[in-house]
Each structure stands twice: as C-alpha cells, then as structure tokens.
C-alpha cells in the first residue's frame, strides 16, 4: 500500500431539519391546536483513530466527506429523524489542522481517540413550540440551523520511541532489521527506504519499544532536495534519536556527515536538535583508520558507539544505552 502522510479534505456536517407548521384536524375538532413537530438534528463529522489504518491514502482518493442533514418535523408532534453521522477512521498519530488558519484542532495519539470536526445543525422548532396563552394558533416555525463546513489538513506523525536518522545508504534499514522483526528493503544504493518503517524491539518480560526508520536526508533537504525533510516529522515524537554515520563512505568525512544531519534537523525544527541523541559510527568492519573514531568523539557532544549492523559488532552496547536513555536509569540496572 502506498504510504501517504498528508491530505487536505473538506468536511461538512448535516444541517438541521425544519420544524413543521401543522394543526390538529380530527372529527369534531375542526380547529384543533398547533401540533407541528421539531426538525431533526444534522449529523456530525467525527474522526476516530483505528489500529487498522496506517496511512492517509483513503483521504487522497476521496477529499469530500458530508454528513446527512436532519429530517423535517411532521404533524402530530412527530419529530424529524436525526441525520446520520459520518465517522472517518484515521491512523493513530494523526494531527488535524484547520487548513485556512493553520490552527491545530486535534492531536490523536491514542487508540480510540474521538474528535468531532463539524457539529450538525440543531433542528428547527415546530409551531407547537410557539403556542402561548395569547397566541393560540401560531403559524411560525423555525428552519434548522445551518451546517458547519471546514477545510482540514490531516498530517500523520508515526509514534515511535527511537528514531533513526542518517544520510542515504548509512545502514539504517539494516540496523532496524537486526533489532526487530521489521524487514525493510535493503540494497547498496541510496534512497532504498522510501517511507517510514516501524519495528518493535522486544526486551523480554512483556517490555518493548518502537523504532522508526525514515528515508535518508541529504544536504539541502530543508529546501526540498532529495526527498526533502518532510519525513522528519515522523521522528518529532521520538524520545531518542540515533544519528547513523557511514564510516565506509570514502566520499564523505564522518564529521561532515554529522554536521549535515544536525543542520538539516535544526532547519526543520530547533526542537529536534534538543532531543536526546546518540551517534553511531556504522560499518566499522571496513574501517582502516583507528584515529577516525577518536577524532570524531572529540568533536561531538553525544555518546558515540562503533557498530557493524551487518556483523553485529557493538550492537549489545548500543542496545543497553538505548534502554538507559528510555528508562532514565543507570547502566547497572539493565
């Protein structure tokens, strides 16, 4: 299934049904009193999170969603039927914005979250409501209140505890496949990963955390280069970021790669560079310069780990440090 993480849609609730103007007419009651019923309420437009949804693709295929209007009231004080609601299922992690003002209307981060985006109009009163001691035969009735209409922007941010960030072909997909049961496409060329991949890392005893692999960044991503920095939104919710540096890439200096990643993250959101971060030097099995790692550690503030996602070298120490950061405990407690 194609991964879509943004969509602009139009929603409209149902308008309220009109009240009825009616008078009781029965045998021997030629001029009975008013008995017009109220109109029914219009249907609501409701968003609800679902674990069966993982993309906003459905909203790109269908961009208009309208609830049913309320039915008009009838004689004999019969109230009109309520208009049917429309319930739109969205993935967990969906944010709903007013596309005109940019206002965040709802951030749906839990399974079963419900948000009413457009409330149906109230049904109008029938003429029976307007009977008084002075006005015995009112002919006045209300029309239903109008519908609410909004243009909304839906934005999906995946929910993960740990986010993998790196340049293309740095080994992010290999790493997540070693830590979890996720099996993203792995190949020796850039931009193998075209959409976020989530993997659940099992710690045993019913404990686990979620790791996210996003498409690689390149210099100038914040200006739209490559796949741009759009996918960085998927690590905004992460509690821990792992910057993966490819030391086997002879065309790039590891410190330069690190600076590019930090620059693109800061250009996207200053909050990203303030998150807990670990640096990982990957593919050390082919590293020939022993001083490279030492020089790198002297220039960066984060913890630095040397690993090989292919051979498994250094992965145990990295796993322990990830748990340390997530739990906020010392390594002795692991």
User: How many structural domains are formed by the residues?
Assistant: 2
Number of strands: 14
**What is the annotated CATH architecture of the largest domain?**
3-Layer(aba) Sandwich
Mean pLDDT: 84
Structural class of the helices, strands and pairings?
alpha/beta
| Strand and helix order | EEHEEEEEEEHEEEHHEHEH
- The helix tally amounts to 6
CATH topology of the largest domain: Rossmann fold
Low-confidence stretches are 185-193, 329-334
Q: How do the strands line up in the largest sheet?
A: 10-11-9-12-13-14
Beta-strand fraction estimate? 15-25%
CATH C-level category of the largest domain? Alpha Beta
Rg measurement, Å: 29 Å
Structural commentary:
The chain has 334 residues and is of the alpha/beta class. The chain folds into two domains: 6-156, Distorted Sandwich (Spo0b-associated Gtp-binding Protein, Chain: A); 162-333, Rossmann fold (3-Layer(aba) Sandwich), CATH 3.40.50. Helix content is 16%, strand content 25%. The chain has helices at residues 57-61, 172-179, 254-268, 270-273, 291-299, 315-327, and strands at 6-12, 45-50, 64-66, 86-91, 94-98, 104-108, 114-118, 149-156, 162-166, 197-204, 207-213, 240-246, 276-282, 303-306. The strands form three sheets. A six-stranded mixed sheet has the order 10-11-9-12-13-14, sandwiched between helices. The protein has a five-stranded mixed sheet with strand order 3-1-8-5-6. Strand 13, helix 5 and strand 14 form a beta-alpha-beta unit. The chain is rod-shaped, with a radius of gyration of 29 Å. The two termini are 39 Å apart. Mean pLDDT is 84; it is low at 185-193 and 329-334.
């Amino acid at each position: 299934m194609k991964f879509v993480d943004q969509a602009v849609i139009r929603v409209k609730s149902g308008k309220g049904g009109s009240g009825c103007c009616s008078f009781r007419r029965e045998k021997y009651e030629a001029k009975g009193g008013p008995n017009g019923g109220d109109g029914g309420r219009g249907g609501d437009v409701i968003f609800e999170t679902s674990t069966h949804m993982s993309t906003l693709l459905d909203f790109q295929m269908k961009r208009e969603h309208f609830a049913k209007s309320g039915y008009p009231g009838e004689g004999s004080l019969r109230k009109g039927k309520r208009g049917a609601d429309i319930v739109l299922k969205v993935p967990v992690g969906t944010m709903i914005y007013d596309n005109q003002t940019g206002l965040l209307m709802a951030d749906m981060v839990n399974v079963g979250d419900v948000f009413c985006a457009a409330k149906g109009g109230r049904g109008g009163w029938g003429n029976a409501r307007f009977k008084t001691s002075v006005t015995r035969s009112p002919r006045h009735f209300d029309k239903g209140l109008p519908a609410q209409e909004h243009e909304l922007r839906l934005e999906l941010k995946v929910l993960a505890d740990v986010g993998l960030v790196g340049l293309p072909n740095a080994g992010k997909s290999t790493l997540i496949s070693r830590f979890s049961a996720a099996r993203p496409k792995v190949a020796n060329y850039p931009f193998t990963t075209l959409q976020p991949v989530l993997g659940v890392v099992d710690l045993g005893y019913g404990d686990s955390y979620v790791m996210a692999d996003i498409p690689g960044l390149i210099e100038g991503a914040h200006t739209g280069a490559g796949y741009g920095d759009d996918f960085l939104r998927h690590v905004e919710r992460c509690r821990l970021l792992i910057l993966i540096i490819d030391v086997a890439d002879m065309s790039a200096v590891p410190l330069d790669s690190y600076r590019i990643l930090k620059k693109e993250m800061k250009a996207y959101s200053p909050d990203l560079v303030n998150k807990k971060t670990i640096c990982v030097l990957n593919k050390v099995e082919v590293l020939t310069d022993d001083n490279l790692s030492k020089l790198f550690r002297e220039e960066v503030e984060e913890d630095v780990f040397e690993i090989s996602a292919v051979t498994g070298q250094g992965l145990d120490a990295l796993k322990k440090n990830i748990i340390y950061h997530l739990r906020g405990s010392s390594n002795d407690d692991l």
